[in-house]
Fold:
Amino acid sequence: MCGIVGCIGTEQAAPILLEGLSRLEYRGYDSAGVAVFDDQAGALSVHKAKGRLQVLSDQLHGGADLRGTVGVGHTRWATHGAPSDANSHPQVSHSGRIAVVHNGIIENYAELKAFLMGQGIPFTSETDTEVVAQLIEYFYEGDLLQAVGRVLHRIQGAYALGILCADYPDQIVAVRKDSPLILGCGQGCSFLSSDVTALLRHTRNVIYMEDGDLAVLTREGIQCYNHLMQPAEKEIVQVDWAVDAAEKGGYEHFMFKEIMEQPEALRRCLSPRIQKGEIVFEDFSLSEDYLQKMNRIYIVACGSSYHVGMVGKYHLERLTRIPVEVALGSEFRYMAPIVDKNTLVIVISQSGETLDTMAALREARRLGGHILSIVNVVGSSIARESDQVLYTWAGPEIAVATTKAYTTQLALLTLLALWLAKRLGTISDADYQAGVAGFLELPGKMDETLSHRDDIQYFASKYFNHDSIFFIGRNLDYALGLEGSLKLKEISYIHSEAYASGELKHGTISLIEEGTLVVALSTFSSLFAKAMSNVVEVKTRGASVLALTTQSHREEMAQTADAVMTIPDIHELLLPSLGVVPLQLFAYYVALMRGCDIDKPRNLAKSVTVE
Ligand code: G6P
Structure:
């Protein structure tokens, strides 16, 4: 969702800004813009365009048309006001002196706008952001920081801001509250960005701004201030992601690259955590005392991360016998959750910035829960606000539809379930060892699963024309179906639903008619016979069935289903980790055949930073 970049240095800014914005495209956006200080004109030069970044870049000849070495840029995902040139950022104050790029929502903008209009200040957009630019100008009496400080006291909501002022041509002001903003410390240059991937080409030395922080970026360096406007020392963190990790490396789409990277991501995530047949979490533990008192586990997340939680619930309850609730980040705050100091709250997020998940985390903390997060992006807000963090180490994930983050989150949560069971004494040694052995096989078996991708491509070519698809499964396969269905609808725009097979008779079966495609998931061996009955049930009503099962059940399934995707047999805890791969590939190939914009599906954002 909305992306911010900014740079100040000695090189022409506009090409750097446009390149930086291209790295943020994956977050989701519908228009783009840049503002640079033109030193010859002594004024800000602002350019904006609705649509893809390429439109803006073409207009500016890749940025070559714009003079100046200081500027900010933005990709906008519309919230207040439709996508249009006028509503794009940067938003500029009426005199043209102040330009602002903004990620987040100013909740009290209507009231502030009414006040400013009452003062005779003309507005040119429908955005909440324009209010910030106009208000800074309103308070501006020659001291930019003072004016920004006064504005921050008056605006409410979530915001990351990049501010340029024509009277201060040698600085950019950055502000952060509840929306990510990262500063890059270069040699003779400074940068800001919503996301570390846009900084990697320039510097690996970054500062993660915290809520309430303000920073002044100059060519000489960065000065940070806390919410009281007192100078604050900030730690400079070295990012160790490879520059090309966020590039396509010869693949047509990031999504496909990330699907193929999964075995490697799993090795990175798992191998340091399994040593000599034991699960070892080097930087995480829970005391014996806490474990004995732990009365409940809550898993809180959104989107695919929530689906990881759905699988995790089955594993955790089966292995630890502790009640587990899985809640959507967007619901948690409003449902009076039963959380106390003996509740372990597991927060799952790839980006570590999803606003609803973050709000749920804060609510859980307020209620006294112990917060353990499973996060991919190091230093992200959720990671920083948690009591403890387990990083997935999946590397940067660029495609909007998550794949390698899902599989590493799931592996880590499953590993945690096994570890907890061992600590709580709710698993036998033999079962524990069998589980650990399963993990050691997982990356290799995922390689094997991926090597059969041509079969999935063939099935996609058979079924890509369907308008409505049902995923059915029981238990682990139901939770897996939720993710398979989401993947498909996200990128191919096919209507699809996932149902617990047992629920079919309570409604959904009325939708099954001649030719309806049902993806029947039956990887979970203990429930295979039940899954077969459901396949027969829908076949009898005319459905075409594309099944997913394990190698050992393939033959039996093939006697009834129209087509069968298979995964290697593996420990039952890890079936969903392998099972998701054919579903990811199916969604990918179907979207490819339908000519969809796979990495940037319409209306979706990678990191959802608004409620
Ligand atoms: C967006 C992404 C999904 C992701 C969800 C939660 O909707 O497109 O892929 O699962 O946000 O994001 P998080 O970063 O918190 O895991």
Observations:
- Residues 296 and 343 are 5 Å apart (CA to CA).
- Residues 302-305, 349-351, 354, 357, 400-402, 604, 606-608 surround 6-O-phosphono-alpha-D-glucopyranose (CB under 6 Å).
- The radius of gyration is 25 Å.
- The mean pLDDT is 94.
